[in-house]
Amino acid sequence: MNLTDDEEILKKLEDTTKDAACGQLEALRSILEHQSKGGGVRYLRPYLQGYDAPVDANTFRQAVPLSSYEDYVDHIDQMANNGPVDHDHDHDQPLLSVDPLICFFFSSGASTMKPKLIPYFDSKLSRAASFIAHQGSNAIHRRLFPPRQSVNKVLWFIYADNITTTKGGFKVMAASSYPMHSSKANWSQLVSCSSPREVILGSNIEHQMYCHLLCGLRNSDSIDGIRAPYAISLINVFSLLESKWEQLCDDLEHGVPSSEISDVVMKDSVTEVLGGPQPELSRRIRLICEEKNWGGIVRKLWPNVRYIRCVTTGSMKQYYPRLKRYAGEVPLLGGDYFASECCVGINLDIMQPPETTRFVLLPTAAYFEFLPFALDEINVGEETVDISGVEVGKMYEVVVTTYRGFYRYRLGDIVRVVDFYNSAPQVEYMMRAPKTSSEIITEKHLMSAVESFQRVIRKDMAAEISEFASFLDLMLSPKHLKLYIEVREGCKLLQEEKLEESVEILKRCGSSIEDSLGGIYMMQRKRGEIGPLAVSIVKPGSFDRLSLVAIENGAPASQYKPPKIIRNRQIVDFMERCIVVTVSLDG
């Protein structure tokens, strides 16, 4: 795209925010009018039967109940299996959308082993809304970093993921993989990627990551930027670099990827990129890595790089300090707020760190409602407000009615309204919403508690937390909350001879953790409704192994996020097998 096209897209974006309320009513009108064609969709019929078209926003919100994934799962299963739920006379009526079903997307949720299926319909209206969002995002990026002719490669840790097929013959993939798997796949969009497409299409995430890194090192002087979907992806990349740099240097020196790479097609394509032995390049990289000073390693290895870009908000915020250390002076750019179900908001100032990242809600992307939310209250109510009813400083769960078959759907994201851009709310992404009223802590509480814990063990034991998660065991009486903490290799906590000392230090940490777990937890703890907090230290690499298990179970590698609030017994059983020591914190 040229400069004129970019300015035109940015102007369109700007215009959509000027009368957000009007844009929202038009979005809802378009959705309901379209989905009422030919008798309409079966999901909406029981709620809107008897109302004259067009149905206005107030009527829609009063007649159609709030919904969650569970309300759609029977319809989704029926579409996936391509068979009717019942045998009544209208079984041919579309279930969720009048548009043709193309495929299913995996959700990126991580609290269970099995990801949700999100139907992807061929919706012209949705394509138009998505186009503005995605092209607007690209235009904002190009305005800050205009393309350069000689330094024009991106080290892009992108994975097409394995695709599966439903009983009804529909493909299932990550939303980010669709452009690479669709019949209209446009590989020219990835022409700047430093890796060949055989690496992107590979089937082994560890081998793909290694090959991406190897190709990026081979093109070290031409790398303009480094990209990945999420911060955790890049943390894994730099961990791989720390552990495999000698092998990478050997591969560059000999001009052939490691024998560990089992995919012949991928290996041959990388060999071609290497272009024969590179002894000088290998020597330069070896000298840098031999120092084992990983602070600012990005600029040392890629001297012309201008940016690193990935999502660093929400649960990804914990990785930002480590990523910043690797990045040094290279700017870390934030991502946008795009969900598998629809685009939600765009990041107009991608240079901001996660704590000040704001997303402008896109009035044409879907019809939005906002369910009030308070951190230390179990139930705030079921009454939503629309885009013009939100208040600065308040938190809400996002509710969407999309062009692709979700109606008053609770997205499961909590945002805080921080300002308005023209008339569109600017929001800060806070966390995932609690699933049920029995959940007594949120992701935000957990992250705050672990930060407090980190400060104590860094001071007393020189230990660095690399990953964590929690599980509330409701089967016990009283119920118990357990934290699983993974620390980096080599710290005192993992040394057998120091175990007793470690346990004593951990026991003293009780209050520093519990004080951060929020009002509901503290109230129930005082009443004796919840037992003493348990902290389990797990072996280094446990969460990495969990990610491989999740990917084997169908979770898309490109969208995998480590769970924070565990709700699945399979994951708990896995974590229990990884425990080094468990301490009950009574203090």
Query: Can you tell me the overall shape?
Result: globular
Structural class: alpha/beta
Strand order of the largest sheet: 9-10-11-15-14-13-12
Report low-confidence residues grouped into runs of 5 or more.
83-90
Task: Say how many strands there are.
Answer: 20
Radius of gyration: 25 Å
The first-to-last residue Cα distance is 60 Å
Helix-residue proportion: 25-40%
Number of helices: 20
The largest sheet, given as strand count, sense and whether it forms a barrel, is: 7 strands, antiparallel
Mean pLDDT: 87
Oligomer: single chain
The proportion of residues in beta strands is: 15-25%
Give an overview in words.
The longest helix is centred in the middle third of the chain and has 24 residues. The strands form 4 sheets. Strands 9-10-11-15-14-13-12 form a 7-stranded antiparallel sheet. A 5-stranded mixed sheet has the order 19-16-17-18-20. A 4-stranded mixed sheet has the order 2-1-5-4, covered by helices on one side. The chain is built from 20 helices and 20 strands. Helix content is 37%, strand content 19%. It is globular. It is an alpha/beta fold and 587 residues long. The protein starts with a helix and ends with a strand.
Question: Helix and strand layout, with pairings?
Answer:
Elements: H1 3-16, H2 20-35, H3 45-48, H4 57-63, H5 73-81, E1 101-106, E2 117-121, H6 124-144, E3 153-156, E4 164-165, E5 171-174, H7 178-181, H8 197-200, H9 205-218, E6 223-230, H10 231-254, H11 264-274, H12 279-290, H13 297-301, E7 307-311, H14 320-327, E8 332-333, E9 337-338, E10 343-346, E11 359-361, E12 367-373, E13 395-401, E14 409-421, E15 424-432, H15 443-461, E16 465-473, E17 480-487, H16 499-508, H17 510-514, H18 519-527, E18 533-538, H19 542-552, E19 565-566, H20 569-576, E20 579-585
Domain GH3 C-terminal: 445-570
Protein name: Indole-3-acetic acid-amido synthetase GH3.6
Organism: Castanea mollissima
